[in-house]
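Let us begin with a simple case.
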Amino acid sequence: MSDTILRLTFFLSILIILIMAEILLPKKKRIHNRKDRWITNGLITLINTASVNIVHIAIPLIAIVAAVDVSNGKMGLFNIINFPIWIEIILTVIILDFIIWGQHLLSHKIPFVWRFHRMHHTDRDLDVTTAVRFHPFEIIFSMFIKITSIYILGASAIAVIIFEIMLNGMAMFNHANLRIPFRIENILRKFIVTPDLHRIHHSIYIDEHNKNFGFSLSIWDKIFKCYLDQPRDGHKDMKLGLKWQNDKPTKLGWSLWIPFKKL
Protein backbone atom coordinates (compact mmCIF):
# COMPACT_ATOMS: atom_id res chain seq x y z
CA MET A 1 0.00 0.00 0.00
CA SER A 2 1.53 3.34 -1.04
CA ASP A 3 1.86 6.24 1.39
CA THR A 4 -0.77 8.17 -0.61
CA ILE A 5 -3.35 5.38 -0.26
CA LEU A 6 -2.47 5.01 3.42
CA ARG A 7 -2.95 8.72 4.14
CA LEU A 8 -6.16 8.82 2.09
CA THR A 9 -7.53 5.82 3.98
CA PHE A 10 -6.85 7.46 7.35
CA PHE A 11 -8.23 10.80 6.10
CA LEU A 12 -11.53 9.33 4.89
CA SER A 13 -11.92 7.13 7.97
CA ILE A 14 -11.40 10.03 10.38
CA LEU A 15 -13.62 12.28 8.25
CA ILE A 16 -16.54 9.82 8.33
CA ILE A 17 -16.16 9.17 12.07
CA LEU A 18 -16.11 12.90 12.88
CA ILE A 19 -19.07 13.69 10.61
CA MET A 20 -21.10 11.05 12.46
CA ALA A 21 -19.91 12.42 15.81
CA GLU A 22 -20.89 15.98 14.80
CA ILE A 23 -24.38 14.79 13.91
CA LEU A 24 -24.79 12.97 17.24
CA LEU A 25 -23.00 15.48 19.51
CA PRO A 26 -23.08 18.96 17.96
CA LYS A 27 -21.61 21.86 19.94
CA LYS A 28 -23.11 24.84 18.10
CA LYS A 29 -26.20 25.46 16.00
CA ARG A 30 -25.39 25.96 12.31
CA ILE A 31 -25.86 29.26 10.46
CA HIS A 32 -25.63 27.78 6.94
CA ASN A 33 -26.90 24.44 5.72
CA ARG A 34 -24.43 21.62 5.24
CA LYS A 35 -25.01 21.21 1.50
CA ASP A 36 -23.82 24.71 0.43
CA ARG A 37 -20.81 24.73 2.74
CA TRP A 38 -19.75 21.16 2.06
CA ILE A 39 -19.96 21.57 -1.71
CA THR A 40 -17.83 24.74 -1.56
CA ASN A 41 -15.30 23.33 0.91
CA GLY A 42 -15.17 20.06 -1.05
CA LEU A 43 -14.49 21.87 -4.33
CA ILE A 44 -11.76 23.91 -2.62
CA THR A 45 -10.18 20.62 -1.54
CA LEU A 46 -10.22 19.29 -5.12
CA ILE A 47 -8.67 22.54 -6.41
CA ASN A 48 -5.98 22.37 -3.72
CA THR A 49 -5.20 18.76 -4.62
CA ALA A 50 -4.84 19.69 -8.29
CA SER A 51 -2.67 22.71 -7.39
CA VAL A 52 -0.32 20.64 -5.27
CA ASN A 53 -0.01 18.00 -7.99
CA ILE A 54 0.88 20.68 -10.55
CA VAL A 55 3.51 22.09 -8.20
CA HIS A 56 4.89 18.60 -7.61
CA ILE A 57 5.47 18.38 -11.37
CA ALA A 58 7.08 21.82 -11.42
CA ILE A 59 9.22 21.50 -8.28
CA PRO A 60 12.53 23.34 -8.73
CA LEU A 61 15.65 21.30 -9.45
CA ILE A 62 17.10 22.30 -6.09
CA ALA A 63 14.38 20.27 -4.36
CA ILE A 64 15.19 17.23 -6.51
CA VAL A 65 18.90 17.60 -5.70
CA ALA A 66 18.05 17.95 -2.01
CA ALA A 67 15.87 14.82 -2.15
CA VAL A 68 18.73 12.84 -3.72
CA ASP A 69 21.14 14.14 -1.07
CA VAL A 70 18.75 13.15 1.70
CA SER A 71 18.31 9.64 0.30
CA ASN A 72 22.08 9.26 0.03
CA GLY A 73 22.57 10.34 3.62
CA LYS A 74 24.42 13.52 2.63
CA MET A 75 21.93 16.08 3.84
CA GLY A 76 19.78 16.64 6.87
CA LEU A 77 20.20 16.55 10.63
CA PHE A 78 19.06 12.96 11.06
CA ASN A 79 21.58 11.76 8.48
CA ILE A 80 24.37 13.35 10.52
CA ILE A 81 23.13 12.24 13.93
CA ASN A 82 22.10 8.61 13.76
CA PHE A 83 19.19 8.41 16.18
CA PRO A 84 17.21 5.19 16.61
CA ILE A 85 14.20 5.30 14.29
CA TRP A 86 11.68 5.71 17.15
CA ILE A 87 13.53 8.78 18.47
CA GLU A 88 13.72 10.22 14.94
CA ILE A 89 9.98 9.75 14.50
CA ILE A 90 9.17 11.48 17.80
CA LEU A 91 11.54 14.37 17.06
CA THR A 92 10.22 14.75 13.50
CA VAL A 93 6.62 14.95 14.71
CA ILE A 94 7.46 17.50 17.44
CA ILE A 95 9.68 19.71 15.25
CA LEU A 96 7.35 19.72 12.24
CA ASP A 97 4.39 20.47 14.50
CA PHE A 98 6.26 23.50 15.86
CA ILE A 99 7.12 24.65 12.32
CA ILE A 100 3.46 24.40 11.26
CA TRP A 101 2.50 26.33 14.41
CA GLY A 102 5.03 29.04 13.49
CA GLN A 103 3.75 29.21 9.92
CA HIS A 104 0.20 29.62 11.21
CA LEU A 105 1.29 32.40 13.56
CA LEU A 106 3.04 34.25 10.72
CA SER A 107 0.00 33.88 8.48
CA HIS A 108 -1.81 36.14 10.95
CA LYS A 109 1.06 38.58 11.45
CA ILE A 110 2.22 39.16 7.84
CA PRO A 111 -0.46 41.16 5.95
CA PHE A 112 0.24 39.64 2.52
CA VAL A 113 0.02 36.06 3.84
CA TRP A 114 -3.07 36.93 5.90
CA ARG A 115 -4.89 37.95 2.71
CA PHE A 116 -4.83 34.27 1.65
CA HIS A 117 -5.25 32.73 5.10
CA ARG A 118 -8.35 34.78 5.87
CA MET A 119 -10.36 32.61 3.44
CA HIS A 120 -10.08 29.87 6.07
CA HIS A 121 -11.48 32.24 8.70
CA THR A 122 -14.52 33.33 6.69
CA ASP A 123 -16.34 30.07 7.39
CA ARG A 124 -19.15 31.15 9.73
CA ASP A 125 -19.80 27.57 10.80
CA LEU A 126 -16.97 25.44 12.07
CA ASP A 127 -16.99 21.73 11.31
CA VAL A 128 -14.77 18.96 10.00
CA THR A 129 -14.84 20.40 6.42
CA THR A 130 -13.36 23.71 7.63
CA ALA A 131 -10.12 21.77 8.17
CA VAL A 132 -9.63 21.59 4.38
CA ARG A 133 -10.87 25.11 3.58
CA PHE A 134 -7.55 26.78 2.67
CA HIS A 135 -6.72 28.92 -0.33
CA PRO A 136 -4.70 27.02 -3.00
CA PHE A 137 -1.88 29.59 -2.81
CA GLU A 138 -1.64 29.07 0.95
CA ILE A 139 -1.53 25.29 0.43
CA ILE A 140 1.35 25.66 -2.05
CA PHE A 141 3.18 28.05 0.30
CA SER A 142 2.72 25.62 3.19
CA MET A 143 3.94 22.71 1.07
CA PHE A 144 7.23 24.45 0.27
CA ILE A 145 7.83 25.27 3.94
CA LYS A 146 7.14 21.64 4.86
CA ILE A 147 9.36 20.23 2.10
CA THR A 148 12.22 22.56 3.03
CA SER A 149 11.89 21.56 6.68
CA ILE A 150 11.90 17.85 5.82
CA TYR A 151 15.07 18.23 3.76
CA ILE A 152 16.82 20.18 6.50
CA LEU A 153 15.85 17.55 9.05
CA GLY A 154 16.63 14.65 6.71
CA ALA A 155 13.46 13.03 8.04
CA SER A 156 12.66 9.48 7.01
CA ALA A 157 9.58 8.65 4.93
CA ILE A 158 7.90 6.76 7.79
CA ALA A 159 8.34 9.73 10.15
CA VAL A 160 6.84 12.13 7.61
CA ILE A 161 3.91 9.81 6.88
CA ILE A 162 3.14 9.50 10.60
CA PHE A 163 3.31 13.29 10.97
CA GLU A 164 1.01 13.86 7.98
CA ILE A 165 -1.57 11.40 9.29
CA MET A 166 -1.44 13.06 12.72
CA LEU A 167 -1.66 16.59 11.30
CA ASN A 168 -4.60 15.81 9.02
CA GLY A 169 -6.42 13.87 11.71
CA MET A 170 -5.91 16.53 14.37
CA ALA A 171 -6.93 19.35 12.01
CA MET A 172 -10.24 17.60 11.32
CA PHE A 173 -10.72 16.80 15.01
CA ASN A 174 -10.13 20.32 16.33
CA HIS A 175 -12.29 21.95 13.65
CA ALA A 176 -15.16 19.55 14.37
CA ASN A 177 -18.46 20.89 15.71
CA LEU A 178 -18.20 18.41 18.51
CA ARG A 179 -19.42 18.50 22.10
CA ILE A 180 -16.92 16.80 24.39
CA PRO A 181 -17.68 16.31 28.12
CA PHE A 182 -15.92 19.02 30.14
CA ARG A 183 -13.78 16.65 32.21
CA ILE A 184 -12.46 14.84 29.13
CA GLU A 185 -11.96 18.13 27.27
CA ASN A 186 -10.06 19.57 30.23
CA ILE A 187 -7.66 16.61 30.28
CA LEU A 188 -7.15 16.51 26.50
CA ARG A 189 -6.32 20.21 26.18
CA LYS A 190 -3.35 19.80 28.49
CA PHE A 191 -1.65 17.94 25.65
CA ILE A 192 -3.50 18.46 22.36
CA VAL A 193 -5.62 21.09 20.62
CA THR A 194 -9.29 20.36 21.24
CA PRO A 195 -12.32 21.64 19.28
CA ASP A 196 -13.15 24.13 22.06
CA LEU A 197 -9.60 25.52 22.05
CA HIS A 198 -9.43 25.91 18.29
CA ARG A 199 -12.96 27.33 18.03
CA ILE A 200 -11.70 30.37 19.98
CA HIS A 201 -9.19 30.95 17.19
CA HIS A 202 -12.13 31.35 14.77
CA SER A 203 -13.85 34.04 16.84
CA ILE A 204 -14.88 37.30 15.15
CA TYR A 205 -12.89 39.19 17.81
CA ILE A 206 -9.34 39.95 16.64
CA ASP A 207 -7.82 39.44 20.08
CA GLU A 208 -9.34 35.94 20.18
CA HIS A 209 -8.50 34.82 16.64
CA ASN A 210 -4.91 35.85 17.35
CA LYS A 211 -4.74 33.11 19.99
CA ASN A 212 -4.55 29.29 19.94
CA PHE A 213 -2.59 28.80 16.72
CA GLY A 214 -1.83 25.12 17.35
CA PHE A 215 -3.11 22.27 15.21
CA SER A 216 -1.90 19.26 17.17
CA LEU A 217 0.07 20.01 20.34
CA SER A 218 -1.23 22.69 22.71
CA ILE A 219 2.18 23.34 24.28
CA TRP A 220 3.41 25.91 21.73
CA ASP A 221 0.64 28.41 22.48
CA LYS A 222 1.32 28.03 26.20
CA ILE A 223 5.06 28.55 25.82
CA PHE A 224 4.72 31.62 23.60
CA LYS A 225 1.81 33.19 25.54
CA CYS A 226 -0.76 32.70 22.76
CA TYR A 227 -3.03 30.44 24.79
CA LEU A 228 -6.61 31.46 25.57
CA ASP A 229 -8.71 29.17 27.73
CA GLN A 230 -12.26 30.40 27.04
CA PRO A 231 -14.03 32.84 24.65
CA ARG A 232 -15.60 35.96 26.16
CA ASP A 233 -19.11 35.12 24.90
CA GLY A 234 -19.01 31.42 25.73
CA HIS A 235 -18.87 28.68 23.10
CA LYS A 236 -22.58 28.44 22.36
CA ASP A 237 -23.08 32.20 21.90
CA MET A 238 -19.76 33.13 20.28
CA LYS A 239 -19.81 34.28 16.65
CA LEU A 240 -17.42 32.72 14.18
CA GLY A 241 -15.79 34.19 11.08
CA LEU A 242 -14.73 37.78 10.46
CA LYS A 243 -16.66 40.85 11.63
CA TRP A 244 -17.19 42.42 8.21
CA GLN A 245 -18.36 39.35 6.30
CA ASN A 246 -21.74 38.26 4.99
CA ASP A 247 -23.13 34.92 3.79
CA LYS A 248 -20.90 34.70 0.70
CA PRO A 249 -18.28 32.31 2.17
CA THR A 250 -20.52 29.49 0.94
CA LYS A 251 -19.79 30.62 -2.64
CA LEU A 252 -16.72 29.12 -4.31
CA GLY A 253 -15.82 32.12 -6.50
CA TRP A 254 -16.14 34.59 -3.64
CA SER A 255 -13.96 32.41 -1.41
CA LEU A 256 -11.17 32.01 -3.97
CA TRP A 257 -11.18 35.73 -4.83
CA ILE A 258 -11.11 37.04 -1.25
CA PRO A 259 -7.28 37.54 -1.11
CA PHE A 260 -7.57 40.05 -3.95
CA LYS A 261 -10.42 42.07 -2.44
CA LYS A 262 -9.94 45.40 -0.69
CA LEU A 263 -11.62 45.09 2.70
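The second case is a distinct protein. As before, the sequence precedes its C-alpha coordinates.
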Amino acid sequence: MKKFLMTILLTTAIIFSGCGSDTATFNERMSGAQASPVAEKIPEFLAKTIDGDPVTQEIFAAKKITVVNIWGTFCPPCIAEMPELGEMARNLPDDVQIIGLVCDASEKSAQIQKAQQIVQQSGANFVNIIPDDRLIKFIEHVEAVPTTIFVNSKGEVVGKAIIGANVKGYRDELEKLLQ
Protein backbone atom coordinates (compact mmCIF):
# COMPACT_ATOMS: atom_id res chain seq x y z
CA MET A 1 0.00 0.00 0.00
CA LYS A 2 2.85 2.38 0.88
CA LYS A 3 4.47 1.78 -2.52
CA PHE A 4 1.13 2.41 -4.26
CA LEU A 5 0.65 5.73 -2.42
CA MET A 6 4.19 6.84 -3.28
CA THR A 7 3.54 6.05 -6.96
CA ILE A 8 0.35 8.12 -6.94
CA LEU A 9 2.11 11.01 -5.20
CA LEU A 10 5.00 10.97 -7.69
CA THR A 11 2.66 10.74 -10.69
CA THR A 12 0.59 13.66 -9.39
CA ALA A 13 3.71 15.77 -8.88
CA ILE A 14 4.88 15.09 -12.43
CA ILE A 15 1.50 15.88 -13.95
CA PHE A 16 1.14 19.17 -12.11
CA SER A 17 4.69 20.35 -12.73
CA GLY A 18 5.11 19.23 -16.32
CA CYS A 19 7.30 16.26 -17.19
CA GLY A 20 10.30 17.07 -15.03
CA SER A 21 11.15 19.59 -12.38
CA ASP A 22 11.94 23.25 -12.47
CA THR A 23 13.89 25.47 -10.16
CA ALA A 24 11.78 28.59 -10.53
CA THR A 25 10.68 30.46 -7.46
CA PHE A 26 7.18 29.85 -6.15
CA ASN A 27 5.84 33.03 -7.79
CA GLU A 28 7.45 32.13 -11.11
CA ARG A 29 5.97 28.62 -10.99
CA MET A 30 2.56 30.05 -10.22
CA SER A 31 2.78 32.45 -13.15
CA GLY A 32 4.20 29.74 -15.41
CA ALA A 33 6.89 32.05 -16.78
CA GLN A 34 10.55 32.54 -15.98
CA ALA A 35 13.85 33.49 -17.50
CA SER A 36 14.75 31.20 -20.36
CA PRO A 37 16.43 27.92 -19.38
CA VAL A 38 18.23 27.89 -22.73
CA ALA A 39 20.92 30.00 -24.35
CA GLU A 40 20.08 33.46 -25.66
CA LYS A 41 20.37 32.46 -29.32
CA ILE A 42 19.47 29.35 -31.31
CA PRO A 43 22.71 27.83 -32.63
CA GLU A 44 23.23 26.98 -36.28
CA PHE A 45 21.82 23.54 -36.86
CA LEU A 46 21.00 21.03 -39.57
CA ALA A 47 18.18 18.81 -38.39
CA LYS A 48 15.16 17.05 -39.83
CA THR A 49 11.47 17.34 -39.22
CA ILE A 50 9.54 14.29 -38.03
CA ASP A 51 8.57 13.88 -41.70
CA GLY A 52 12.23 13.69 -42.76
CA ASP A 53 12.52 17.15 -44.33
CA PRO A 54 15.78 19.06 -43.69
CA VAL A 55 15.54 22.20 -41.56
CA THR A 56 18.07 24.80 -40.41
CA GLN A 57 18.01 27.89 -38.22
CA GLU A 58 16.81 29.79 -41.31
CA ILE A 59 13.31 28.63 -40.40
CA PHE A 60 13.18 31.53 -37.92
CA ALA A 61 14.12 34.22 -40.45
CA ALA A 62 10.75 34.18 -42.23
CA LYS A 63 8.72 35.14 -39.15
CA LYS A 64 8.77 37.96 -36.62
CA ILE A 65 8.23 35.51 -33.74
CA THR A 66 8.43 31.73 -33.55
CA VAL A 67 6.82 29.94 -30.62
CA VAL A 68 9.10 26.95 -29.90
CA ASN A 69 7.37 24.23 -27.90
CA ILE A 70 9.89 21.77 -26.46
CA TRP A 71 8.02 18.55 -25.80
CA GLY A 72 8.44 14.81 -25.40
CA THR A 73 6.50 11.79 -26.59
CA PHE A 74 6.65 10.43 -23.01
CA CYS A 75 4.95 13.49 -21.50
CA PRO A 76 1.16 13.44 -20.85
CA PRO A 77 0.86 17.26 -20.44
CA CYS A 78 2.77 17.75 -23.72
CA ILE A 79 0.46 15.41 -25.59
CA ALA A 80 -2.66 16.83 -23.95
CA GLU A 81 -1.90 20.38 -25.14
CA MET A 82 -1.22 19.37 -28.76
CA PRO A 83 -4.81 19.85 -30.05
CA GLU A 84 -4.90 23.36 -28.55
CA LEU A 85 -1.46 24.14 -30.01
CA GLY A 86 -2.69 22.96 -33.41
CA GLU A 87 -5.68 25.29 -33.14
CA MET A 88 -3.40 28.14 -32.05
CA ALA A 89 -1.10 27.50 -35.03
CA ARG A 90 -4.01 27.67 -37.46
CA ASN A 91 -5.06 31.08 -36.10
CA LEU A 92 -1.72 32.87 -35.85
CA PRO A 93 -0.93 36.08 -37.74
CA ASP A 94 1.16 35.63 -40.90
CA ASP A 95 4.34 36.83 -39.18
CA VAL A 96 4.19 34.18 -36.40
CA GLN A 97 4.68 30.41 -36.38
CA ILE A 98 4.80 27.50 -33.94
CA ILE A 99 7.55 24.89 -34.11
CA GLY A 100 7.77 21.79 -31.97
CA LEU A 101 11.10 20.44 -30.79
CA VAL A 102 10.71 16.75 -29.90
CA CYS A 103 13.28 16.42 -27.13
CA ASP A 104 13.27 12.63 -26.86
CA ALA A 105 13.50 11.85 -30.57
CA SER A 106 16.68 11.17 -32.48
CA GLU A 107 17.16 10.46 -36.15
CA LYS A 108 16.88 6.69 -35.73
CA SER A 109 14.50 6.33 -32.80
CA ALA A 110 11.04 4.87 -32.38
CA GLN A 111 9.96 8.22 -30.91
CA ILE A 112 9.76 9.70 -34.42
CA GLN A 113 6.90 7.38 -35.32
CA LYS A 114 5.26 8.07 -31.96
CA ALA A 115 5.64 11.85 -32.49
CA GLN A 116 4.11 11.53 -35.97
CA GLN A 117 1.16 9.66 -34.51
CA ILE A 118 0.65 12.25 -31.74
CA VAL A 119 0.80 15.12 -34.22
CA GLN A 120 -1.58 13.45 -36.65
CA GLN A 121 -4.14 12.45 -34.00
CA SER A 122 -4.10 15.88 -32.36
CA GLY A 123 -4.22 17.98 -35.52
CA ALA A 124 -1.03 19.80 -34.50
CA ASN A 125 0.08 20.24 -38.10
CA PHE A 126 3.01 22.56 -37.52
CA VAL A 127 6.70 21.78 -38.06
CA ASN A 128 8.14 19.41 -35.46
CA ILE A 129 11.90 19.06 -35.40
CA ILE A 130 14.09 16.15 -34.35
CA PRO A 131 17.00 17.91 -32.62
CA ASP A 132 20.52 17.45 -33.93
CA ASP A 133 23.52 17.54 -31.55
CA ARG A 134 23.60 21.36 -31.48
CA LEU A 135 19.90 21.62 -30.61
CA ILE A 136 20.32 18.92 -27.95
CA LYS A 137 23.08 21.02 -26.39
CA PHE A 138 20.87 24.12 -26.70
CA ILE A 139 18.05 22.53 -24.68
CA GLU A 140 20.19 20.60 -22.19
CA HIS A 141 19.21 22.92 -19.31
CA VAL A 142 15.49 22.48 -19.88
CA GLU A 143 14.39 20.65 -16.76
CA ALA A 144 10.73 20.10 -17.57
CA VAL A 145 8.63 19.65 -20.65
CA PRO A 146 6.68 21.16 -22.09
CA THR A 147 8.82 24.28 -22.02
CA THR A 148 7.93 26.97 -24.52
CA ILE A 149 10.28 29.72 -25.62
CA PHE A 150 9.92 32.55 -28.11
CA VAL A 151 12.45 33.27 -30.85
CA ASN A 152 12.72 36.33 -33.11
CA SER A 153 13.67 36.33 -36.79
CA LYS A 154 17.39 36.56 -35.88
CA GLY A 155 17.19 33.34 -33.86
CA GLU A 156 17.41 35.18 -30.53
CA VAL A 157 15.38 33.95 -27.57
CA VAL A 158 13.06 36.75 -26.45
CA GLY A 159 10.45 37.14 -23.73
CA LYS A 160 9.91 34.67 -20.92
CA ALA A 161 10.04 30.91 -21.09
CA ILE A 162 6.85 29.17 -20.02
CA ILE A 163 7.25 25.88 -18.21
CA GLY A 164 4.32 23.51 -18.21
CA ALA A 165 1.31 23.16 -20.48
CA ASN A 166 -0.17 26.67 -20.61
CA VAL A 167 -1.43 27.62 -24.07
CA LYS A 168 -3.16 30.72 -22.66
CA GLY A 169 0.23 31.75 -21.24
CA TYR A 170 1.85 31.23 -24.65
CA ARG A 171 -0.78 33.45 -26.25
CA ASP A 172 -0.35 36.13 -23.58
CA GLU A 173 3.44 36.19 -23.92
CA LEU A 174 3.16 36.23 -27.71
CA GLU A 175 0.77 39.19 -27.54
CA LYS A 176 3.29 41.11 -25.40
CA LEU A 177 6.11 40.34 -27.85
CA LEU A 178 4.09 41.49 -30.86
CA GLN A 179 3.31 44.91 -29.36
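Residues 2-17 form the longest helix (16 residues). Strands lie at 19-20, 33-34, 46-49, 54-56, 65-71, 96-102, 127-130, 144-145, 147-152, 157-163.
Keep these points in mind for the review questions at the end of the chapter.
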